[in-house]
Design a protein that fits this description.
One of its GO terms (molecular function) is oxidoreductase activity, acting on diphenols and related substances as donors. It is found in: Cell membrane; Membrane. With 199 residues, the protein is mostly helical. It has one domain. Helix 3 runs antiparallel to helix 5. The chain starts with a helix and ends with a helix.
Length: 199
């Protein structure tokens, strides 16, 4: 009976986090249908999808520190989901940019790449996310063995590229970027601290 209740709780928790991660996209879609995205809805869509890609990446990075500090072992079972949602929102961010802002014009894209380096680092971060996404399953973890952990340590340079992508878009107000940078510094700093203690 206890095991049955525990299994139901895990399932409810899984669905809760799954739907919670999906809710920003649903809210964006509802606001789009209600014509509630302001004077430039295309720009808002691209910006919001990018914001949630970064947020979910930071949450993925936060799983291990939170587990160690609070002892929440159950969080580990959701790290893969958060990572996959990160990739999902990042791909949507790219597709929205290509569709709404440059209209799938390769000549405009090439011009943007030379004029705006934040697009280059953002694209590189997304490319590096692809092998992490493809090897996120337990089967791939077993197949790659010790190499799996080395491959997935790419999450750290990816996070730095994403932060650079975010910062280079600053026009005037840099408050949001500053908050994300502080959080990333704490998350990566904690990992360096743990690595120093174990060495």
């Amino acid at each position: 009976m206890v095991l049955m209740l525990s299994g139901k709780m895990r399932l409810l928790r899984w669905w809760f986090i799954f739907l919670l991660c999906l809710s920003p996209l649903a809210a964006l879609f509802v606001n789009l249908l209600d014509d509630n995205l302001g004077a430039d809805p295309a720009k808002i869509i691209v910006k919001e999808l990018g914001f949630w890609a970064i947020t979910l990446l930071w949450l993925t990075l936060a799983v291990t520190p939170v587990r160690k500090l609070l002892g929440w072992r159950w969080l580990m079972s959701f790290r893969r989901m958060l990572g996959l949602y990160t990739f999902f929102y990042a791909v949507l961010h790219l597709l929205a940019f290509a569709t709404f802002l440059i209209g799938w014009r390769w000549d405009i894209l090439l011009t943007e790449l030379t004029k705006r380096p934040y697009i280059v680092v953002g694209a590189l971060a997304l490319l590096l996310l692809i092998p992490l996404t493809l090897t996120s399953t337990k089967a791939m973890q077993r197949r790659l063995g010790k190499h799996w952990k080395k491959l997935h340590s790419l999450i750290y340079p990816i996070s730095l590229l994403v932060m650079l992508h975010f910062v280079w878009q600053i026009r005037s107000d840099f408050g949001q970027q500053f908050i994300f940078a502080i959080i990333l510094a704490i998350l990566l700093g904690y990992r360096l601290y743990l690595k120093g203690r174990s060495s």
